[in-house]
Design goal:
With 190 residues, the chain is an alpha+beta fold. The chain has one domain: Gcn5-related N-acetyltransferase (GNAT) (Aminopeptidase, 3-Layer(aba) Sandwich). Helix content is 33%, strand content 31%. It contains six helices and eight strands, in the order ββαααββαβαβαββ. The protein has an eight-stranded mixed sheet with strand order 1-2-3-4-5-6-8-7, sandwiched between helices. A hairpin with a 6-residue loop joins strand 3 and strand 4.
Length: 190
């Protein structure tokens, strides 16, 4: 069984350091099950505002998708929490998949699946304190050497800035949700 904590780091959150723990394998899957309600609360807070404007039900669907993904090989989860039992400040996760590479017309049959950075969410009150960067870096460090893909809202300026500063490059613009918004597919070599 993989170790419980693949890595741990700190990011400043409201004057208190937030612990960021990265998990893989069965411990990551168990954490998603145990924290499903807290993960949904973070997703609802992070994605309920512009530019996403996602309804609360969308956050629950994102956690259901995460629960489904958690049992797959290569699943990596990073969690951020301020000390002393404070609510979860954020999370990020990903796993090897071909979905985004195929959407970008970059599917290469026969090779190892690229790593898809699936979600990164930080509570609005904890944003701008390095937590998103720490979550991102924890997942990427634990994900292996393959090419990486992500999809984000094309108008999410803070997210785009974080990703570009971490070496991601735009690959393709695709239609997003039914509201006519666009998603930007981004990639990075490793």
């Amino acid at each position: 069984m993989p170790p419980l904590a693949v890595s741990a780091s700190r990011a400043a959150a409201g004057g208190h350091p937030a612990a960021v723990v990265t998990l893989a394998g069965p411990p990551a899957a168990m954490a998603v099950q145990d924290l499903a309600a807290a993960l949904a609360a973070v997703a609802e807070a992070a994605f309920g505002a512009p530019p996403w404007n996602e309804p609360a039900g969308q956050a629950r669907m994102a956690v259901k998708r995460m629960l489904d993904d958690a049992g797959r090989t290569g699943f990596v989860l990073a969690l951020a929490r301020a000390p002393r039992g404070a609510p979860l400040d954020g999370f990020a996760y990903g796993l090897p998949r071909w979905h985004l590479a195929a959407l970008a017309d970059r599917h290469v049959p026969g090779g190892a699946a690229p790593f898809e950075f699936r979600e990164l969410a930080v509570r609005p009150a904890a944003q701008g304190k390095g937590i998103g960067t720490a979550l991102h870096d924890g997942v990427i460090a634990a994900s292996g050497p393959q090419r990486r893909w992500l999809a984000t809202h094309a108008g999410a300026r803070p997210a785009l800035s974080l990703y570009r500063n971490r070496g991601w490059h735009a690959a393709r613009l695709i239609p997003g949700s039914a509201d006519g918004s666009m998603r930007l597919l981004m990639t990075r070599a490793r």
